[in-house]
C-alpha cells in the first residue's frame, strides 16, 4: 500500500513524540470527561468534579479543561507535565483561564475570598497571596453542565463572599476548523468586580519539543522585556526558537508592541516539521501578553482587564482556528 508522504511524515513524527514523551505515560486513571465533535475537530473535555475531577487545585478555572484535540491528524493539547496531581496548581491541560482574586486584601486570616471558576477559598495567615498555592475551598459554588454533540457549556454560581458574588458561564463550541470559547461573567454581588484574566494555552502541537521547528507570529513588531540567553530571538513580528529546550529548562518574557484595540489580539503558532498551525484571536484588547515555554509546551498568555459593576455583566470570546502551514487563511 502506498502511503502519502505527508501522512508518513505525521506518522513518523507521532512515533518520535511517543518515544520522546513516553516517560509522561502513567497508570491509566479515569476522570469525568465529555467529547465534542463536528466531523472536523474532535475534542475531549474534563468535567469539573470536587471529588474525582482531573483538576482540583485553586489557581485555574475548573471549566472547560481540554484534555485533547485533534484536527486532520494533528494534535494540539495534552499532558505536558510528567506527574499528575489534581491538587497541583498547574496540573492542567489545554486552554484554561486564571483570574486574579477577589477580596483577598480585605479578608482577614480565616475569612474567605473568591477565585473565579473555583469558588470561595480560605485565607490563611500569610504575608501575601501565593499564586501557586492550593487553598482550602470553603464554598465550591453551584455547577451545571449542558452538552450538545459539538458544544459544551459550564455554569458556575458563587454566593456572597465578602460582598462578592457571580455567575460565570463558559461555552466551548466547534465551528468549522475552529474551537470557540465564549465567556460571560455576571456580577450578582454588592461590590464591583475588578479582575484580570488570561488564557494559559499549554499548546502541544503534535507533541513536538519546543525548538527551531516552531515559530510564534504576531501582527505587530515585537520587543521582549527579558533576554532569552540564546534560546530564542525576535525577527520583526516573529518569535523564533534557536535551540531545542531540554528537560527542566524553561523561559518566560513579557512581550511589547501591541496596540489598544482587539486587532492585535491575533497570533499564530506553527510547527514547520509537522505542518500543524493554530491561530488565536480575541474580541477584546489585550492589557498584557506573556510568552512562557518549557520543553513540552508553548504558551502565549494574553491578559484582559475586566470590570463589572453590581447587577451588570460582561463577555469575551477567544477563537482557535486550526490549519496546516502553507495553507493557512
Give structural notes.
By secondary structure, the chain is mostly beta strands. The chain has one helix at 5-20; strands at 33-37, 41-46, 65-71, 74-75, 96-99, 112-115, 119-122, 137-139, 142-148, 151-161, 164-175, 178-187, 193-200, 214-217, 223-224, 232-235, 238-241, 250-256, 266-271, 276-282, 288-294, 299-308, 313-324. The strands form four sheets. It has a ten-stranded antiparallel beta sheet, with no helix packed on it. Strands 5-13-22-21-18-15 form a six-stranded antiparallel beta sheet, with no helix packed on it. Strand 6 (112-115) and strand 7 form a beta hairpin. The longest helix has 16 residues, at 5-20. The protein is globular, with a radius of gyration of 20 Å.
Task: Give a brief outline of the structure.
It is built from one helix and 23 strands. With 329 residues, the protein is mainly beta.
* Element pattern in H and E: HEEEEEEEEEEEEEEEEEEEEEEE
Question: Which percent band covers the strand fraction?
Answer: 35-45%
> What about the largest sheet?
10 strands, antiparallel
Mean pLDDT: 92
Structural class call reads: mainly beta
How far the N terminus sits from the C terminus, by CA atoms, comes to: 33 Å
Specify the number of helices: 1
Classify the helix fraction into a percent range. under 10%
Give the CA-based shape: globular
Instruction: Indicate the low-confidence ranges by residue numbers.
Output: 1-5, 14-28
The largest beta-sheet arranges its strands as: 9-10-11-12-23-20-19-14-17-16
Number of strands: 23
Rg over CA atoms, rounded to whole Å, is 20 Å
Amino acid at each position: 500500500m502506498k502511503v502519502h508522504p505527508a501522512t508518513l511524515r505525521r506518522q513518523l513524527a507521532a512515533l518520535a513524540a511517543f518515544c520522546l514523551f513516553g516517560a509522561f505515560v502513567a497508570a491509566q486513571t479515569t476522570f469525568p470527561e465529555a467529547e465534542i465533535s463536528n466531523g472536523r475537530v474532535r475534542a475531549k473535555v474534563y468535567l469539573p468534579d470536587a471529588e474525582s475531577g482531573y483538576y482540583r487545585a485553586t489557581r485555574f478555572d475548573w471549566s472547560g479543561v481540554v484534555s485533547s484535540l485533534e484536527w486532520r491528524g494533528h494534535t494540539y493539547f495534552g499532558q505536558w507535565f510528567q506527574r499528575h496531581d489534581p491538587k497541583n496548581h498547574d496540573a492542567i491541560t489545554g486552554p484554561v483561564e486564571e483570574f486574579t482574586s477577589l477580596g483577598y486584601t480585605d479578608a482577614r486570616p480565616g475569612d474567605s475570598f473568591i477565585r473565579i471558576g473555583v469558588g470561595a477559598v480560605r485565607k490563611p495567615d500569610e504575608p501575601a497571596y501565593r499564586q501557586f498555592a492550593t487553598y482550602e475551598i470553603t464554598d465550591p459554588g453551584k455547577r451545571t453542565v449542558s452538552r450538545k454533540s459539538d458544544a459544551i457549556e459550564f455554569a458556575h454560581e458563587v454566593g456572597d463572599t465578602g460582598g462578592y458574588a457571580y455567575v460565570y458561564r463558559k461555552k466551548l463550541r466547534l465551528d468549522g476548523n475552529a474551537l470557540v470559547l465564549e465567556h460571560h461573567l455576571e456580577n450578582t454581588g454588592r461590590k464591583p468586580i475588578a479582575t484580570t484574566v488570561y488564557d494559559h494555552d499549554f499548546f502541544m502541537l503534535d507533541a513536538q519539543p519546543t525548538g527551531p521547528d516552531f515559530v510564534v507570529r504576531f501582527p505587530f513588531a515585537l520587543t521582549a522585556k527579558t533576554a532569552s540567553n540564546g534560546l530564542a530571538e525576535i525577527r520583526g513580528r516573529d518569535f523564533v526558537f534557536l535551540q531545542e529546550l531540554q528537560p527542566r529548562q524553561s523561559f518566560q518574557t513579557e512581550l511589547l508592541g501591541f496596540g489598544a484595540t482587539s486587532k492585535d489580539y491575533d497570533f499564530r503558532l506553527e510547527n514547520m516539521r509537522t505542518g500543524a498551525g493554530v491561530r488565536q484571536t480575541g474580541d477584546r484588547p489585550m492589557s498584557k501578553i506573556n510568552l512562557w515555554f518549557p520543553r513540552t509546551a508553548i504558551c502565549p498568555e494574553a491578559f484582559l482587564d475586566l470590570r463589572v459593576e453590581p447587577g451588570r455583566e460582561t463577555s469575551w470570546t477567544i477563537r482557535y482556528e486550526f490549519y496546516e502551514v502553507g495553507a493557512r487563511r
